[in-house]
Amino acid sequence: MARVPAAVRNTMSRLRPTRRPRPAARVELVPPPANRWTRALGLVAVVLLGAWLGLLVVGNVRVPVGPMDTTMTLRPSLTGGTKINISPLGALHLDSHIAPVRLDVNVDQLDPDRSQALVDHPERLSGLQDEVARDVGHGALDLAVRSCVAVVAGATALGLAVYRRPGRALAAGGLALTLLAASGATAYATWNPKSVLEPRFSGLLSSAPSLVGDARSIVTEFDVYQRELARLVTNVTKLYDATSTLPAYRPDPTTIRVLHVSDIHLNPASWKIVASLVEQYEVDVIVDSGDTMDHGTSAENGFLDPIEDLGAPYVWVRGNHDSRITQRYLDDLKNVHVLDDGRAVSVAGLRFAGIGDPQFTPDRTNKAGAEATQELAGARLATALRDQRAAGTPVDVAVAHEPQAARQTDGEVPLVLAGHVHHQEMEVLPYGTRLRVEGSTGGSGLRAVEGKHPDPIEASILYLDRDTRRLQAWDAIRLGGLGLTTAEVSRHLVEENQPGAARSPSPSPTPSPRRSP
């Protein structure tokens, strides 16, 4: 075989086409939806955290409101609302709006020059409301602008620190601004200017009446929100400086203030609480709806002696833990009015009638036929109320221990008071009578320690119009812990006194057959 020269072989190899490897097909990886949601949730978390940090750092405004220096702040919240902190007196809570942000107003200090000017020129108090309204309006506008800047800056800065990409950081800032705008729109849509009519106070018990204010002025002046807000600020002003000579709280003389207590159950601390409430609210009459004792023995009678020195007339009905021995002892005490068998008495401008509990069960046993016995007692009370009305001396307030008995008076009296169940209730019965059930003013007595947490001590201040003798509003008082210094006081208006509500008619007498036991 002929040998091919090496030079020819090299030339032929250069002329052959060279095979190049095919490039590998490019595979595009599409992120699964879960990853997109994770990134989105991460961005939202960064926005919320950055916005919150921004509000903490720069989202507050120092605002002079009347004679006070205050700090207004927006805070993240699940329920919204407004909180006015008056350290060390306590705080006022207003259900002003529903949104994921809450308005906090901290009272920092009372300016001595401005407060002294009010002392020297009391006529300026009349113009304080307009001044407060202007101050609050300017402060709210300044707070809104500052909060926008704080939220956007905080979210953008944290987005830049986390993602290190300007585009993502700007997206975080834009989303923060959108969320703040949505929160503002929600707050505006749910804004309730009448929330100042029913404030909730928590703090020193002695401060509650002055901060919450008198029910009469609230009922008659709910048409202007700014005036009510100014009234709250004025009350705070009067209390904040304990050494000033600003005028003290004085209830409206056109209201009758009734302190409703019940189920004291031999708690000696209750008398100090009752005496404090009588003094702070200038109570006209105390109504006790029973179970003052625990076993009703004569050995317990000495527990009742402080009633004579409480500072107000004491109206009482027998509970199922109170015996006839207890009732006779109370009947002999001065300033005590015992109600039983539908008997009516006039005290502090109101006419009361009541009936004692038909059962005596100090051992907490349930006797057979108890329900029918309570209904029979309530029917006897209802009959007595009808007789009083027919005689031209209608009863304003009826009292029974068991709510079941109290419900039998529906249609015969505007207001009936009861206890027994150890928690507060307010109910309008079918024929128009309003039933108020009081909690335990003794914190359930010795049985309070049977559970994990002691039961709260509860009482109510009822505001009745002196002319119509109808309930206008009430303050639900709840004491916790030691019970003597701290409290939560919630203001409530009856439905017909709510803004824009029609006046409800008087309770309509029910047919006689309904009352037959």
Automatic annotation (TrEMBL):
Q: Which UniProt keywords apply?
A: Hydrolase, Membrane, Metal-binding, Transmembrane, Transmembrane helix
Q: GO CC annotations? A: membrane
UniProt KW Transmembrane helix keyword = yes
- What Pfam family does this protein match (any one)? Metallophos
Domain Calcineurin-like phosphoesterase residues, every copy: 256-423
Q: Where is the composition biased (Pro residues)?
A: 506-517
| Keyword Lyase tagged | no
InterPro entries documented for this protein: Calcineurin-like_PHP, Metallo-depent_PP-like, Metallophosphoesterase_sf
Q: Which GO terms describe its molecular function?
A: metal ion binding; UDP-2,3-diacylglucosamine hydrolase activity
Task: State what protein this is by name.
Answer: Metallophosphoesterase
